[in-house]
Amino acid sequence: MAAVEYPTFTFETTAEEVADAFAEQIRGKNVLITGTSVNGIGNETARVIAKYANLVILTGHNEERLKLAEEAIKGSLPTANTRTLIIDLSSLASVRKAAAEASAYPEPIHVLIHNAAAGLTPFTLTVDGYEAQMATGHLASFLLTKLLAPKLLAAKTAEFTPRVVWVSSSIHVLESVNFELLKTPDATKYTPIMAYAHVKSATVLTAGELGRRSKGAILGYTVHPGVISTNINQAKDAIPVLQAVGVLDAEGKPDSTNYKWKTIPQGAATTVAAAFDPRISATPGAYLDDSKVAEAAAHSTDPATAAKLWTATEEIVGEKFEF
């Protein structure tokens, strides 16, 4: 039998093109994705996967926005089989409640996609006392992965290994995780950009460690979606931060001189590739850019740092992974 030839993806590749290429890998799968609001890459990711998947579970903390997200997908794709799940990632209690609900679903979960992020917010503490970006982007995603691990493992077959995908960012190269601030947030040491970098480094470290800890039973991946104009970087608090680093110009519009911007369909492409491209099964923990494996910063791929972060996060969330 001849080997299947898959396309080579580029900067311009769209999520729909990736989904079409991996239609057979997506067919029959159940996928849970966080952060699916309209005008975000999560919604587009969910939409294109829903073309072929058995079930796509959409999550969000606001019931009205979650309903709009589902309506947008079904308006474009009436045959989509979707289910909504309320989850507030700034609250560990809410994560536990949502995980319990999802764990009661009759279906296994083949792919878990951590797309949600807090955005470039001013210093804020969550109800649990942790910095909001780290709590949403790392602590909540770690806890949700832990609690849904049995559902993921139930999807494993001889032909398929479940995957967990984190939407990271190339900004992870700026700095590794600050362990002091992870446990004890400090407003005097906080800047939105560096907090964002800490979180994105944490995702790369966690993805690699997931594969090692599970001995390959669950594969973890991270992606750089690109520079994209979405609802997160159009938020009021984010605009001055992005202006300060030059991503947005003085009028708050995308700087196309120094940055090459992707559309939302292009920005969602790499997530779909990380979730379903069979070619990356041999590289667990890989970091992807432009829908293919790329090189992550050394501080975010160091196994010793990853193990330290894993243990520290288990202590914070009060849950120990057991495979």
Would you give an account of this structure?
- The protein has 323 residues and is an alpha/beta fold.
- The chain has one domain (15-317): Rossmann fold (3-Layer(aba) Sandwich).
- It is 40% helix and 12% strand.
- It contains twelve helices and ten strands.
- It has an eight-stranded mixed beta sheet with strand order 3-2-1-4-5-6-9-10, with helices on both faces. Strands 7-8 form a two-stranded parallel ribbon.
- Helix 1 runs parallel beside helix 11 (269-276) and helix 6 packs across helix 12 (303-317).
- The longest helix is centred in the middle third of the chain and has 22 residues, at 132-153.
- It is globular, with a radius of gyration of 18 Å.
- It holds the Pfam family adh_short.
- GO terms for molecular function: oxidoreductase activity.
- Belongs to the short-chain dehydrogenases/reductases (SDR) family.
- This is Short-chain dehydrogenase/reductase family protein.
- It comes from Mycena chlorophos.
Count of individual domains: 1
Unreliable sequence segments: none
Number of strands: 10
| Run of helices and strands | HHEHEHEHEHEHHEEHEHHEEH
CATH topology, what is it called? Rossmann fold
| Average predicted confidence as pLDDT | 94
| CATH architecture term | 3-Layer(aba) Sandwich
Amino- and carboxy-terminal Cα gap: 35 Å
Determine the fraction of residues in helical runs and give it as a percent range: 40-55%
Order of strands in the sheet with the most strands? 3-2-1-4-5-6-9-10
Computed Rg: 18 Å
Task: Please give the largest β-sheet.
Answer: 8 strands, mixed
The total of helices stands at: 12
Q: What would you call the structural class?
A: alpha/beta
Full CATH superfamily name: NAD(P)-binding Rossmann-like Domain
Strand content: 5-15%
Q: Class in CATH? A: Alpha Beta
Gross morphology is globular
Keywords: Oxidoreductase
Family: Belongs to the short-chain dehydrogenases/reductases (SDR) family.
GO molecular function, one term: oxidoreductase activity
Organism: Mycena chlorophos (Agaric fungus)
